[in-house]
Design goal:
Number of strands: 5
Radius of gyration: 44 Å
Largest sheet: 3 strands, mixed
Helix content: over 70%
CATH superfamily of the largest domain: Stage III sporulation protein AH-like
Order of helices and strands: HEEHHEEHE
Oligomer: single chain
CATH architecture of the largest domain: Orthogonal Bundle
Shape: elongated
CATH class of the largest domain: Mainly Alpha
Number of helices: 4
Distance between the termini: 120 Å
Strand content: 5-15%
Structural class: alpha+beta
Strand order of the largest sheet: 3-4-5
Length: 204
């Protein structure tokens, strides 16, 4: 009888230990599940808050975490595009104008050279053609020297047009001071052998 009771007690203790272990395991799994759900929920809220805060009303976060109104951002973008477009147009003006001017000089030189090569042109006409070739080449050289000298004064670009006695110089600059205009006039007057009253300066 004592052996039987002892066996029953041992069985009862083992059964109690198994029940306790099962309860603890179930409780632990539930806690882990609740912790995982809570963590995912918090992460979702954080992500949503970040997404929502990136556009607060009509504002947007830009580089550096600076908050900029969308209207201001559009204005900045439009101004940048406008400035770039204007700069490109100005650059195109100077490059295209120089090409057209050089093309005009080349055509004139070719025409006079054909006169010199012709066998049907009189000697007087050939002399005139030779003088014009010399004049055009001197004029081209004087323009090149003048433009280079003016650039050394800090101007990015310049184009010079000569039409008879009238000299027109267009400077790539937002504005020109009286001192700068005087410097340009002195260079043009000296290099192009012209009176200052015949020199016209503008900026672009």
């Amino acid at each position: 009888m004592k052996v039987l009771k002892r066996n029953q007690i041992i069985i009862f203790i083992l059964a109690l230990m198994l029940v306790t272990a099962g309860y603890l395991s179930t409780t632990s799994n539930q806690n882990l599940l609740q912790t995982s759900v809570s963590t995912n929920y918090n992460n979702t809220n954080v992500a949503n808050n970040v997404d929502d805060s990136s556009t607060i009303g009509d504002a947007t976060f830009v580089n550096g975490g600076v908050l900029v109104e969308n209207e201001d951002l559009n204005m900045i973008s439009n101004n940048t595009v406008s400035t770039n477009t204007k700069s490109t147009e100005v650059d195109d003006y100077f490059s295209n104008s120089k090409l057209q001017r050089d093309s005009m000089y080349s055509q004139s030189l070719d025409s006079y050279q054909k006169m010199l090569d012709s066998t049907t042109i009189s000697s007087e006409q050939k002399a005139i053609a030779q003088n014009e070739i010399t004049r055009i080449n001197n004029e081209k050289n004087a323009i090149m020297i003048s433009e280079n000298l003016i650039k050394t004064k800090g101007f990015e670009d310049i184009i010079i047009f000569i039409n008879g006695d009238s000299i027109n110089a267009v400077i790539k600059s937002d504005k020109l001071s009286q001192e700068e205009i005087a410097q340009i006039q002195n260079i043009l007057s000296r290099e192009l052998k012209s009176d200052i009253s015949n020199i016209h300066i503008s900026n672009k």
